[in-house]
Specification:
heterodimer, A: alpha+beta, six-stranded mixed β-sheet, B: 434 Repressor (Amino-terminal Domain), 2 domains
């Protein structure tokens, strides 16, 4: 499995990076994201507190869309989410956001549907690979 | 809005989209914005989802966030080329400095905007929703080159005023 950093992921990092410490990024967030190289065999992908399929507001599963979840990150104890799209044996890191309420989740799920569609159409900006 | 015809085989859904577009017009969103929605809501389910979230939302602040998201998604849909584009990798250790540069650049540009009537006037001239422009100036993400050009054109600024190395 390849892991691609899209420009969406990069831009969301620039918006978010004061939400967590560099230590948390290096010791928790990045190593967890690197587990995608071992998807789906690594046991953490069986833990629904860490990983799960994306669903829209109506509860419908979003095909190819998954989220990685962290709880109590940063000094504010935020809930952080990383949205991942799978296509062509590749995991695309799409967007990271602070889940501050259900509305944020609904909006992010709608946006993810669009990103997945654009990725499937080959319309995305590649910013590198993880590792 | 009798000139709008949207057909995706589901008459009820078509009517709901029209309701939403009418409501967007009623609250003063610019025609360029909801015309772009109209063009893309059939093809992109996520656009329809965001439009429905906006329609169902009663909190004005939440509605503004949805408009920001819609504008951002429309820009992706319109601007992304038909093939993947490879941009240079950025070193993690450089990102904090890049963010500082971005915010400083946006601060200076905002001062220029304020000298030309402020955000609401810029929204009127560019057709970009006011909430999107407000978010643009406070966000640490890199500005889109196309947005910078729209701002330059609207305010009659030279390219040098919007030249910046960290764009997307």
């Amino acid at each position: 499995m390849e892991v691609v950093i899209t420009d969406w992921a990069l831009q969301s990092y620039l918006e978010l990076n004061s939400a967590f410490t560099i230590k948390e990024y290096r010791e928790v967030l990045r190593p967890d994201a690197e587990l995608l190289y071992e998807y789906p065999t690594h046991p953490k992908f069986g833990n629904n507190k860490f990983w799960g399929p994306c669903k829209d507001k109506s509860g419908k599963i979003i095909r190819q869309g998954f989220k990685m979840k962290w709880h109590n990150i940063g000094s504010g104890g935020i809930q952080l989410r990383l949205l991942v799209a799978f296509a062509n044996e590749t995991a695309y890191l799409c967007n990271a956001y602070v889940k501050d309420n259900e509305n944020t989740d609904y909006r992010e799920m709608a946006k993810l549907k669009i990103k997945i569609q654009l990725i499937n159409e080959g319309r995305f900006i590649f910013r590198g690979r993880l590792l | 809005m009798s000139y709008i015809h949207i057909h995706d085989g589901n008459h009820d859904k078509d009517l709901h989209v029209l309701d939403i577009l009418n409501e967007m017009r009623r609250v003063g969103l610019q025609s360029t914005f909801f015309c772009a929605l109209m063009e893309n809501c059939q093809r992109y389910e996520g656009i329809r989802d965001l439009m429905e979230l906006w329609f169902d939302e009663t909190n004005p602040k939440e509605r503004e966030k949805i408009i920001v998201d819609l504008q951002e998604c429309l820009e992706d849909i319109v601007e992304l080329p038909s093939k993947p584009v490879e941009r240079p990798y950025l070193r993690f250790d450089d990102l904090n400095e890049i963010k500082r540069d971005v915010l400083e650049f946006k601060k200076q540009l905002r001062e220029e905007v304020d000298r030309h009537g402020g955000i609401s006037e810029l929204a009127r001239r560019t057709g970009i929703p006011q909430s999107s422009l407000s978010r643009f100036f406070t966000s640490g993400s890199m500005p889109r080159r196309t947005t910078l050009y729209k701002i330059a054109k609207a305010l009659n600024l030279p390219e040098s005023a919007v030249g910046f190395k960290w764009t997307r």
